[in-house]
Amino acid sequence: MPNLSMTRRAIKPGLITTANRRRIGDAGASILILWLWTALTGCAVMREPTPTVDEFLARAVDPGVETLAYEAQGSGTPIVLIHGLGASRYTWRHLAEPLARRGQVIALDLKGSGDSPKPRDDAYSVYDQAALVLDVLARLDLGEVILVGHSFGGGVALATALRLQQEDRLAALILIGSTGYEQPLPVFIQLLKTPLVAPLGMRLLPARMQVRAIMNRAFHDNDLVSDAAVDEYAATLQSTAGRHALLRTARQIIPSDLDTLPARYASIEAPVLLLWGREDRIVPLEVGRQLHEALPHARLVILDAIGHMPQEEAPAATLMHVFRFLDEERLGR
To answer: CA-to-CA distance for 154 and 103, rounded, in angstroms?
Structure first.
């Protein structure tokens, strides 16, 4: 087998020789066929138990434990950015600096992503991640905050918002293509949840191939998927710990209490912006419409001809709507 354990800076297409590429292709094609067959024939996928929202809301905050990496810039009202599955704080590269002119931007790497620890444990659910976000907020001694979450990170932001709402510390919530309701799982999530085949597929298929396939699904315009972004997100998959974290997150991506959790959303009294790409094929627009109905002070903005990652595919439009929301709610600096 070719050595796919490259360093973060060395992930370049040209490093794979023609002979190695052929061997990767032969092995990868076989694994991909098996992987797809497993998902499409309805073979069992793993759904691991998670904590419940009641357990999460009752958990004590621990500001003394440093767990998540983050990058901070600006000053004023804290604006906390939470990325989605398989991404990192890199996803906010187009938004962080402009937003820092409106407040103190804190862009997090969730557990298992970017520069944050990737322990070989099973605590990768929405609630586990939200608990770590709360620990960071406590360690930084932040009061009222604006939460911004994308995709799985939107689910983390929702859980965090429920806790901050109880403490009167939620200034606003911005959700971009966020999870929050039962929905059909994308094929790549189903693949990640399949036992045995998923770990094997992740090891044998080149990380860049996996990431580009997912980003092509997430973007409406595939020409906007950059090599730099593919390289950045593929870096995590080069390590055993990174692959473990992604698999565990995928298997716990649906909270055990998702059937009852949405009843809690009405308790969020802060203003909410829901930003959705009309062509989102990962978290369908219907989820955004459901959140719009459930959250009492929410507005839904739909971006035409945009997919699941507006912050990367259409950063200018995303910023325009975020700034408009902040202005209308008189938030930030």
So the answer is: 20
Question: Contact, 50 vs 125, CB < 8 A?
Answer: yes
- Of the candidates 109, 135, 231, 280, the residue annotated as catalytic is 280
Q: Is 280 a catalytic residue?
A: yes
List 88, 113, 151, 178, catalytic entry: 151
Looking at the domain assignment, is residue 13 inside a domain?
A: no
Residue 44 placed within a domain: yes
- Out of 83, 220, 244, 308, which one is annotated catalytic? 308
Any domain includes 3: no
183-222 pLDDT, tens digit each: 988 877 877 777 767 777 788 889 999 999 999 999 999 9
Asked if residue 153 lies in contact with residue 175, where contact means CB atoms within 8 angstroms, the answer is no
Domain assignment of residue 146, given as a range: 18-333
Q: Is 151 a catalytic residue?
A: yes
Two tokens, residue 13: 């297409």
What is this structure's pTM?
0.86
Count of the separate structural domains present in the chain: 1
Please state, rounded to an integer, the average pLDDT across all residues of the chain. Answer: 86
In a domain, 1, yes or no: no
Is 223 in the active site? no
What's the CA gap between 102 and 232, in Å, rounded? 27
Under the banding of pLDDT at 50, 70 and 90, the label for residue 66 is low
